[in-house]
Amino acid sequence: MTKKPLSIILSIIMLLSCITTIDNSKVFAASNEETIYDYLTNNLGFNSAAACGVLANIELESGFNPQKNESGGGGYGLCQWTGSRRNNLITWCNSNGYSYSSLQGQLNFLNHELQNDYPDFYDLMKNVNNNESGAYDVAYNWCMDFERPEYKDKVHGQYNANGVPTVNGGYDYFKAYGKTYRCIAARIGLTESQYRGKIASTTYWSKYGGGDVEPPDLSINLKCATPNDEIELKWNSVTNANSYWLHIYRYGEDYINESVGQSLSIKKKFPKGVYTAYVAAIGNNGEAFSGVDFTIYDSAPSAPQPYISKDHFEINETVNITWAEVPDTEYYWLHIYRNGEDYENKSLDKALSYSAQYPEGEYTAYIVSGNGLGETISYVEFTVHSDPPDKPDLRIAKNRFTINDDVTVSWDAIANADSYWLHSYRNGEDYENKSIGKELSYTAKYPVGEYTLYIVPINAAGETLSSVDFTVHDSKPEAPKPTISKEAFSTDEEISIKWNATADTDSYWLHIYKNGEDYVNQSIDLALNYTDKYPVGDYTAYIVSCNGVGETLSSVDFSVYLSGDCNNDGIFNVSDVVLLQKWLLAVPDTHFENWKAADMCEDDRLDVFDLCTMKRKLIYG
Question: What CATH number is given to the structural domain containing 285?
């Protein structure tokens, strides 16, 4: 719902306050002067000094009469707008629903004129010192720069009716631009701007300045409520306030208008309606008030029912979304997503349709009905396209599964696809053939077989497809047959364990024990060999074939020795060279703990060449 600006409601109050038949007990001023003062301070943000300066000018221009029509001068209204400014007053009031002769219309036009035609001057007026000097300055400058009467800077003197200077007798006149004007004695010796400054800093400052009350800080517990809820208004104690007045409007009309004495809160239930509540602090030198809006609803509105003629459009077509009016709806909101991301997000006020053309994409349009108690939402989906969809990039975790596994195929959204189709083949024959809507993945269990699964993006212009292959089995894999080139290796050698590819295997696992304890334990995926160097020890290497049903394994044994350590004491040193030399010389009782360690040439025989190589390794490393 479009809320009425506070200024409009206040203006209604001000208009009422200038009608002489209104009871004097009402919260707002009974005279135009006080109404204007309230408007200047509450709506224009002027302090008391600035308001006094403006009052002095309006008094001397129009006597606070919004219908004053200057005889012969063309000025009209409170500020005696003349020429194009008078025309602007009439045009603006007519365009904004006001009578140009009303206090309400002229005050709101003054607000408009200051903010749009005199912004720098307006800022200056809002920032004057709040004292007598400030009141004088505003009155002076308002006369010089805003009212601009032709005699604004002319000194008032004593003249007779013929314009001849006189000191004794006769009337008091002043001359300006060849004309003679009657004046009051108080003006003598002052320009018109100075005189207005004097009036502001004396007459009006003594009435409104000093001891002013400030607007109360008004708060409310619920801005939106039901008829069963209690609305509580609270405000602070305002310095210089003798009492407080409560004025509440329902649908823009009087609902409560009464004094609340010195109370600082009220609590009350209200029937369904749109309300504005004002609390005025009343002091000896004037009044100041604050307002707050609230709404009473029976409930949040029902969800709207948006409608479109079809759900597929070309890029040059207009998409028209319509819906029926929903009771208790304060506003409608449109939120459109394109390809899952924000595209349009804006208020539609009270409109019941929305039309636009859209670029290629997949759209969801949400229509929101809202009021202060909440919102409800409904949506329609549509697609805009011009070409067949792109091919999907399919993803699958692996290509071998068991009958107990979930097989999931997924893909990213294709921008111009309206829907997707699934077509799978098992052992070369149809197995599945169906629409999967706008889903971006598909999961199922499958019986044993060889599969090809196609995902087909579709729109009105055509279709494309992509596929993945996978296999489903129901038994453990075959056991692998690992092999190595020999049974014993030196620490300098790389040992390569190889095995055959086994049927129904999803992956292989390597588990190696050294001297009976864990040494290597890791997945090797679908590799068919593993190569590494090992420290001295006795090893058993298990190769495990795995799938979702179970696993099988086989093993090979091998040992690793330190090259040259033929006495097997874990160290290669001169004692090993001496042992080999004794053995070559056939010294009695000479034997090896590990003759392979002495086979430095790795030719499965021991001779003087091994001794030479051993010595060279001992000396040079």
Answer: 2.60.40.10
